[in-house]
Structures are given as structure tokens and as C-alpha cells.
Amino acid sequence: MLPAGGERGTIRNWYEAPEGEDPYVFAKTGTLSNNHALSGYIITRSGKKLYFSFMNNHYVTSSSVVKREMEKVLRYIHMTY
């Protein structure tokens, strides 16, 4: 139901799964001027489903910088748990 990271929807260019793996981020975005939100769930390598929500407000850089940092956090959680 939600867009899959690296494959479709508003996150098709972000949160791509490692080579040979299925998508692990399923989420929906919301963006306004200097505000970016991402909510959904991730599938960890051990198969757990973890729900999350990021809300980034009043940042003074491009949204791609914020998305890269969120991607780091989500990948770490995917790989570790």
C-alpha cells in the first residue's frame, strides 16, 4: 500500500535496498517549505517490522541533505536489528 524505497512513489529515488535484497522502507512523505516528514515502516534483516515517523522542521539546507541523514538512520536500523 505504501511506496517502496528505491522502487516507486515519492521515495523511488531514496532508501534503496542493498544489491539483491527486497525493499525495506515503505513510507509516505509530506513536504512544505523547510519542513519534511516521512512515516511508515521498515523491515529489518531479521524480519521485524518497525514503524517510524520523522518530522524535520525549519531546516536551512536542501531537503536532500535531510533525506540522506534519514536514509543513514533507516539503513543502520535495517542492518542492525
What keyword list fits this structure?
alpha+beta, 32% strand, 1 helix, 81 residues, three-stranded antiparallel sheet
Describe it.
This protein has 81 residues and is α+β, with helices and mostly antiparallel strands. The protein has one domain. The chain is 22% helix and 32% strand. The protein contains 1 helix and 3 strands; from the N terminus they run βββα. The protein has one helix at 63-80, and strands at 25-32, 35-43, 49-57. Strands 1-2-3 form a 3-stranded antiparallel β-sheet, covered by helices on one side. A hairpin with a 5-residue loop joins strand 2 and strand 3 (49-57). The protein is globular, with a radius of gyration of 12 Å.
Unreliable stretches covering 5 or more consecutive residues:
none
Assign an overall shape: globular
The structure class reads alpha+beta
Tell me the number of strands: 3
Adjacency order of strands in the biggest sheet: 1-2-3
Order of helices and strands: EEEH
Instruction: Tell me the helix content.
Output: 10-25%
Distance between the terminal alpha carbons, to the nearest Å? 23 Å
The share of residues in extended strands comes to 25-35%
Mean pLDDT: 95
- How many helices does DSSP assign? 1
